[in-house]
Amino acid sequence: MIDPKELKYSKSHEWVRMENGTAYIGITDHAQESLGDLVFVNLPDVDDELEAGEPFGDVESVKAVSDIIAPVNGVVTEINEELLDAPEKINEEPYEAWLVKLTNVSGDDDLLDADEYDRFVEEEDE
Hints:
With 126 residues, the protein is an alpha+beta fold. The chain has helices spanning 29-35, 81-85, 88-92, 114-125; strands at 8-9, 14-19, 22-27, 38-42, 49-50, 55-61, 65-69, 73-79, 100-106. A hairpin with a 4-residue loop joins strand 1 and strand 2. The model has no long low-confidence stretch (mean pLDDT 96).
């Protein structure tokens, strides 16, 4: 089980988990809750280069379509194929349901720790 306190976060509501030089990227519990029931996910191709701050895919819910913004720079080494057939797994376990794995990771200086992210969400919701 992933501890959300050990992840880093972007202000666009993506999370990053670093493990042996690989970044796992997903969307936060706050993001999936705001979107509602997810029905479709669109992910990049393996070997695509992601640039921090730029969209790399999207998620579609019964309410809206929302871009997924790259929280870091990196090269896609794997996508979570399981989510293509079962996007609802993001709703069920947002911190287990990673979207992509990246290598050659950089540009993580602007990421927030869990406490900073919680404060950011509280201020945003006011």
